[in-house]
Amino acid sequence: MNPNVKLSEKVAILATMDPASVAAGTVLTAWVSMANVGMLTALIQTGVLGASATVDAKLRQATDATGTNAKDVTGKAVTQIVKATGDNKQVLVEMRSEDLDVNNGFGFVALSVTVGTAASQLSAALIGSVARFLPASSLNQAAVAQIV
After folding, report:
1. What is the torsional sign of CA 64, 111, 72, 12?
2. Within a domain: 145
3. pLDDT of res. 3
4. CB of 126 within 8 A of CB of 14?
5. pLDDT for residue 4
6. Of 4-8, 49-53, 115-119, which gets the smallest average pLDDT?
């Protein structure tokens, strides 16, 4: 391990759901290509959940960047987060490129978050690692404003 290599050189912020009060319904990150990363981690963060609210999240796969043929990535869904225990929590969902249905042309991933019952505060990020080429930060989405 090289202590001179920064974390920002090893990981990339590929897509985000910026912090917001999200109405009941489903929101989706942008579709990101797995062509240049070997692993992907979804970080879901809840704030204060609305009365009786629930939050479900899962990784979806598609054959292109517009979500064509979208389907779930097997085994990559969180246990439902509920109001009683779900305020101010974090959840990680990890996957490898091998988890994709590559035999059928699936190479893009998005995070799908469904808020049930009542608006709730949340944010999320798709973080790519094991980059094919370093620094991984060259893959950051355009909204990454600074690396210090």
Report:
1. positive
2. no
3. 80
4. yes
5. 85
6. 4-8
Cβ contact 41:130 at 8 Å: no
Is residue 1 situated within a structural domain?
no
Q: Are strands 25-28 and 71-77 parallel, antiparallel or unpaired?
A: unpaired
What is the model's pTM? 0.95
How many folded domains does the chain comprise? Answer: 1
Sign of the dihedral through C-alpha 39, 37, 47, 29:
negative
Q: Does a structural domain hold residue 140?
A: no
CATH code where residue 15 lies:
2.60.120.20
Q: Is there a domain that residue 73 lies in?
A: yes
Taking CA atoms, 25 is separated from 53, 54, 105, 116, 133, in Å, by 11, 10, 29, 6, 37
